[in-house]
Amino acid sequence: MIRQVSIFIENHEGRLNHILKILAENKINIRSLNIADATDFGIVRLILQETEKGIEVLKKNDIITTVTPVLAAEISDDPGGLSTLVNALTEANINIIYAYSFLPKKTDNAIIIIRVDDEVQQKAIETLEKVAAVNLLDRETLLLK
Amino acid sequence: MYWNKSYECMPREKLQELQLERLKRMVNRIYHDVPFYRNKFQEKGLMPEDVRSLDDLKKLPFTTKVDLRDNYPYGLFTVPLEQIVRIHASSGTTGKPTVVGYTRNDIAMWSELMARCLVAAGAGPHSVIQNAYGYGLFTGGLGVHYGAERLGASIIPISGGNTAKQIMIMQDFGSTVLTCTPSYAIYLSEVLAESGIDPETLKIKAGIFGAEPWSENIRRDIEKKLKIKAYDIYGLSEIMGPGVAIECECQEGLHVWEDHFIPEIIDPNTLEVLPYGEQGELVITTITKEGIPILRYRTRDITRIIAEPCSCGRTHLRINRLQGRSDDMLIIRGVNVFPTQIESVLLEIGEVEPHYQLVVRRDGSLDTLEVKVELSEALFSDRISNLENLEKRIRDRIQSTIGVSTKVALVEPKSLPRSEGKSQRVVDLRKI
C-alpha cells in the first residue's frame, strides 16, 4: 500500500506554485504528480519521498491535505501491459476511481498508481497478486525504483 | 389624476389631525392586545395616554425584524386568527420567515392604497396590467393584483419568470402597464431587443418597479429601451407590502400614504429622530392596520424625507429613492437575503467551516450570488465527485431555505478575509 498525499487547491493561477514552493523549500522530493480539476477547484495528488514531513509542512501552511491509500503496480512497458492489469480488476468487478503513471528512475518497466474504493482495496491486492505480469510494489520498493 | 383626491390632497393640518387620532387609537389597541408592546411601554414607563401629539411618537419604542422573529409566527397579531383572511411572509434574518396577517379591512386598505399608486403612475380602469411580480408568500404579486382589481383595470396575473411567455402576452394581450422588479424590466428589454421586437409596436406605456433598489441611470435605461415611463414603488411586508409609497408623474420622490403610515427618519446609531431632509434610516408606524399593527418599524432602508410640496398636488410627504441599507441585507432578484441565513445553512450542513463570503454580481441584467465557503479538513475528500456533491448539497439547501439560486465555490482555508464586523462577508460588485 502506498500513501498518496491529496491536496485541495483553488483553481486559479499561483496556487499550485504555492504548494510546490513549500515542498521545495523544505527539500521534499515529489516522485509523482497528478492533478484533477473541477470548475473552481482541483485536487493535487502527490507521492512524496518523505510523506510525513510533507504533510507536516503543508498543514503548517494551512493547506488541506489528506492521505489516500493507493496501489502501485509495476507492469512491462509494452503494448498490452496496462490492459492485462485493468482486465484483471474488471473481471473481479473492481472499479478504478483514478489511475496515473509514476515515473521510475531505475527500471524500464512502467509503474501505475491506482486508486480503488477503500472497501475493495484488499480484494484488489489479492486479485493483482495472482497476475504474473503485474508486480505490486510496497512503498520502499517504489521509492527505490 | 388621483384615485382618492380628498385623502391624497388633504390639507396637511387636517391630515395631521387624522394621523394623531388614528395613532392614539392604534397605540391603545397594541397596548391592550399585544403583551410584547405592553411590556415595552411599561419598561419605558409609558401609558397610551402619554401620546398627546404626533411629536410624542418619538418617545415610543421601536419594532425590529428581530422582534417579529421572537414572536414568530403570530405573537404580534392583535386579532384572533379567525379574523385573519390572509398570511404573507418574507425572509427573516435566520431560518424562520417574518410572518404578517391581514384582516378583511387590511386587504381593503392595501387594495385602496395600491389603486392610488397605480393611478399615480398613470394607470386607470382601461389599463391592462401585466403583473410579473411573484405570486405567493411574497407580497409583490397579490399586492398589485388586488389594487388593480380595486381600480377596475384588467390584471394579467402572469407572475415572475418565463420571459418568452411574458413577451408573447405583452404583444398579444396588449398590456399597457408592466409591474416587476427593475432588474427584470431591464432583462425583458434586452430579450425584446435580441428578438428584434421594436418596443414601439407594443402598447406598454408605463412600468411600476420595486422590491429592490435602483438608480436614476437604470430608470433612464429602462425608459429608453422600453419606451415607457418607469415609476418607483416602495413597500415591505412588515408594513403592508407594495404600495406604502409611490412616485407620481413628477418622478421626484415617492409619496408615503400618510393617512395610513407615519414615516420618520432616524440616525441608525443614536436612534434619534432626524429633521426632514436629512438622510437616515426610515422608520414607519402603521396607524390603521388591524391584523398586525407595527409601531415605529425600523425598515433599515436609508433615505430622506422630502417635505416640500409636490407639484402634483398630493400633500403627502415624499421619501427619496432608497440609498442603501443600514444592515447587511442583500436583495437578489427581488428576494431579501441576510448573510446570517447563509450562515445558518452552513452550520446545519455541519463540518464545513462557517467562514464564507457572499459575492454579488450583476450578470447582464440579472443578479447572481456566489457563496464562497472555506473547506475543512473533515470534509475534504480525494474524490472530485464528493466535493462536487458537497457544493451541490450546500446549493440545494440554500435554494430550499432562502429561495434563491446560488453558485457555491469551495475555497482554501483561511483564504477569505476575517473581520470583526460583517462587512467583508459581502462583496457587492453590482453597480446600480
Which of globular, elongated, flat, extended, rod-shaped describes the shape of chain B? globular
Count of individual beta strands of chain B: 21
**Quaternary structure classification:** heterodimer
CATH level-two architecture of the largest domain in chain A: 2-Layer Sandwich
CATH class of the largest domain in chain A: Alpha Beta
- Give the C-alpha Rg of chain A: 16 Å
Q: SSE order of chain A, as H and E?
A: EHEEHEHEEHEH
Describe the protein's architecture and organization.
Chain A is α+β, with helices and mostly antiparallel strands. Chain A has two domains: 2-68, VC0802-like (2-Layer Sandwich), CATH 3.30.2130.10; 70-144, ACT domain (Alpha-Beta Plaits, 2-Layer Sandwich), CATH 3.30.70. Chain A is 32% helix and 37% strand. Chain A is built from five helices and seven strands. In chain A, strands 1, 2, 3, 4, 5, 6 and 7 form a seven-stranded antiparallel beta sheet that branches. Chain B has 432 residues and is an alpha/beta fold. The A-B interface holds A 4, 6, 8-10, 15, 36-38, 40-41, 43, 45, 62-66, 68, 97, 115 and B 375-377, 380-384, 387-388, 409-415.
Name some characteristics of this structure.
heterodimer; A: 145 residues; alpha+beta; Alpha-Beta Plaits; 7-stranded antiparallel β-sheet; 5 helices; 7 strands; B: 432 residues; alpha/beta; Rossmann fold; GMP Synthetase, Chain A, domain 3; 9-stranded mixed β-sheet; 11 helices; 31% helix
Q: What's the short story on this structure?
A:
Chain A is α+β, with helices and mostly antiparallel strands. Chain A has helices spanning 15-25, 51-60, 81-91, 121-129, 139-144, and strands at 2-10, 30-37, 41-48, 65-75, 96-102, 110-116, 135-137.
